[in-house]
Amino acid sequence: MADLYAKDWLDTHMNTLAAWKQDAFRQFGNMIADPSNAYPCIPGRQGFLTNNLRFGFAADPRSEQAVIDVVKLLQAYGRCSRETGKFASLVIFFHTTADMLNSFSVEDYEELFWSVLKRVSANDTAPWPEHISKDPSHHSWEFCCDGQPYFSFCGTPAHVVRKSRMFPHFLIAFQPRWVFEEINDSTPFGRNMKKRIRQKLEAYDGIPAHPSLKWYGQADNQEWKQYFLRDDESVPSKCPYTFMKNKLKAVGVLFHK
């Protein structure tokens, strides 16, 4: 059963979870809420500190169970995300086994990431939103599940150079598109936020920001290029994601608030 958790609940019920889940959540908190305030994602840090984020745990990302877990979590999250706060995001930690930790490269995790998104789409029963292109090369494209568009972010144990994309467990975060209604290039708040994030990102990683990082909706922007960043500046020649037909019925999920 894939459960949706709030930080406040996890803080007080941590010992009820499996050891790997406890470690994933603790590591995430140590990273995003570090005392030096170095982590570059300002909205993510604010969301964590103000209980806006929601968390879920999924099986080995290579398994079909993991896909079922992610679908269930996104279905549940889509129904409550607007009630969680303006810095909303869903963070899903995957059971990352020893063989993955010992042998998977950044490229292996990249393939795994896109595999998860494709398989989630294949098991999503809701129609694709009409205002979102199904073509990843179009500037309006965004990953969607259960009728909701999300910006997706992946962290892996294999990243070394881009420290902002390194996490000890395979991780995928889903940020609802509505969060960016105020954080975009058309508002002074958004432009200032972007400037501050880029400055912190370059300081955190020690290298220039990836050239693929742009604003959603820009004519030359392709969101998929920002979902998974390699340690260098290379990108795949085309998006690995392809829209797939639905096949799985919606299922329930427990809430821990």
Automatic annotation (TrEMBL):
The protein's matches in InterPro entries, at most eight in alphabetical order, are given as: Uncharacterised_YqcI/YcgG
Tell me which domain of life the UniProt entry assigns to the organism this sequence originates from.
Bacteria
By what name is this protein known?
A: YqcI/YcgG family protein
